Structure formats: structure tokens, C-alpha cells
């Protein structure tokens, strides 16, 4: 349940980031504070509600049980619930990918237009473009990592629906790679491409 809540929340949060980048890049001032505190609170509330709603179905699931040395062990949720859970995850990832790809392409085009038409000093323009380029890379990394995870989830649905234990075993063994890639891609790229984030991690001073 904790895993489902966290993954759903992080995906929705990354979708908000993509939308925010598009809104910022559409404004000629490129000011980051484009959303009021009220909008931020509403979006946070929506994120929490949807993440909680995503967990409800788990309470109605059966469990796959094996007997080992006379002891009954719960290994996972039952096959039907597994298919339903992975289907929901795939739908969420698909929605994220569609919106992310469309808005990332539009953001990229707007970024090119700004570079061509910006009527500011060269140094200021360089700073602005570097900042926006880095954020574009971060958003793109999130999109690619979620695409990889969505493909893994689809394979899991296929294996569970057609009852392919060998493929299911492979997917279980490789689950951590796409899962953690999608979960931590935003954090890693932020540390790599954002000097401000690196300074915040390395000092207690206000920056």
C-alpha cells in the first residue's frame, strides 16, 4: 500500500512539474512562481486524494499463498488483483507519458523561439537558457524513465493474464530497475543539473 501510494503520488507530482514547466516557458518573463499558494494547495490535495484512492482496491484483494515446511506464507496478491493493479499502473503511466511528451515537445519549441527572439543582454540570455534547458532535461528524463516502467508494467500484465510463470519470474527479478529508475530519475537529474539543489544539499546557509 505504501509503495502504491508513493508511486502514484510521485507520478502525479511529476505530471504537475511538466505542466508547470510549460506554463513558465510560455511566459515571456520566465518567472518560476506562476502558481499561487492556493493553487499549490489544491494540487497537493488532488495528489493526496488520488494517491489514496489508488490504494483502496488492495483491501479487497485475495492473496497468493504457498506452504513451506508446514507454514502458510503470503507471497503476493492473487493473480486477478495483480492484473488489475498493473493495469491501473499502466493507465496512470500512459496518461503521464502522453501529457509529458506533448508538453515537452511544446516546451522545447517555445525554448527555441525564446533563444531566437530574446531581447536581453547576452549574459542574461545565457543564464535564462541554461536554467530552462536544465529543467527541460530533468522533465525529459522523467518521461523516458516512466516510459520504460510502463513497458515493464505492460509485460507484467501480459504474463499475469496468460499465466506465464517463467516470464513473471523474470519480471519480478528485474522489477527494481525500472521501478527505482522512474522513482529517482527526477531527484538524480535535479542534483546533476541544478547548481542550486547541489548547494542546498552541501550547506545549511540560505541560497
From TrEMBL:
Listed transmembrane segments: 42-66, 94-114, 135-162, 174-193
Alphabetized UniProt keyword annotations: Membrane, Transmembrane, Transmembrane helix
Domain of life: Eukaryota
Name of the protein: G protein-coupled receptor
Species assigned in the record: Pristionchus fissidentatus
Amino acid at each position: 500500500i505504501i509503495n502504491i501510494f508513493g508511486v502514484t503520488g510521485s507520478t502525479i507530482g511529476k505530471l504537475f512539474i511538466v505542466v508547470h514547466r510549460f506554463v513558465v516557458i510560455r511566459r515571456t518573463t520566465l518567472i518560476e512562481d506562476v502558481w499561487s499558494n492556493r493553487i499549490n494547495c489544491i494540487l497537493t490535495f488532488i495528489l493526496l486524494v488520488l494517491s489514496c484512492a489508488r490504494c483502496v482496491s488492495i483491501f479487497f484483494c485475495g492473496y497468493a499463498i504457498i506452504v513451506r515446511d508446514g507454514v502458510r506464507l503470503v507471497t503476493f496478491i492473487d493473480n486477478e488483483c495483480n492484473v488489475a493493479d498493473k493495469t491501473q499502473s499502466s493507465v496512470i503511466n500512459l496518461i503521464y507519458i502522453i501529457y509529458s511528451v506533448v508538453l515537452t515537445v511544446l516546451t522545447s519549441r517555445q525554448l527555441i523561439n525564446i533563444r531566437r527572439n530574446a531581447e536581453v543582454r547576452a549574459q542574461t540570455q545565457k543564464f535564462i537558457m541554461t536554467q530552462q534547458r536544465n529543467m527541460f532535461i530533468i522533465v525529459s528524463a522523467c518521461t523516458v524513465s516512466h516510459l520504460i516502467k510502463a513497458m515493464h508494467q505492460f509485460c507484467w500484465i501480459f504474463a499475469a493474464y496468460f499465466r506465464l510463470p517463467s516470464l513473471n519470474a523474470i519480471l519480478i527479478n528485474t522489477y527494481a530497475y525500472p521501478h527505482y529508475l522512474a522513482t529517482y530519475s527526477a531527484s538524480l537529474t535535479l542534483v546533476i543539473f541544478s547548481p542550486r539543489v547541489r548547494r542546498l544539499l552541501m550547506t545549511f546557509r540560505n541560497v
